[in-house]
Design goal:
GSCFA, GSCFA domain-containing protein, mainly alpha, 4 helices
Length: 97
């Protein structure tokens, strides 16, 4: 990982890595250690995990409720496609708020 010596990978303090570096490291890790199937699964699940991190301004709004239903629909499709992945924690989190 000699590439990481490049200044573009460091934050303003020149000590800590920035998001460009983190993305670069992840890409190299994925290329080296994950097969195409695992990478594909991760890419399919990532939108759901990102949506789970969403913090709503108005949790009781119709728009947010539609958003939650959409996430549950996506999870349901993923469960059919990847029956070996347990989404029970995500479903519980969505349903209980």
């Amino acid at each position: 990982m000699d590439d990481l010596r490049d200044y573009r990978f460091y934050s303003g303090d020149m000590i800590h890595l920035n998001s460009v570096a983190m993305d670069y490291i992840w890409e190299r890790f994925e290329e080296t250690y994950l097969d195409k199937e695992a990478s594909g699964i991760m890419k399919n699940i990532d939108p759901v995990l990102s949506a789970m991190g969403h913090k709503p301004f108005k949790p009781d709004s119709d728009l947010h409720q539609d958003f939650l239903i959409n996430i549950l629909d996506k999870i349901e499709k993923l469960q059919l496609q990847y029956s070996f992945i347990d989404f029970s924690r995500e479903i519980k989190c969505i349903k209980t708020g």
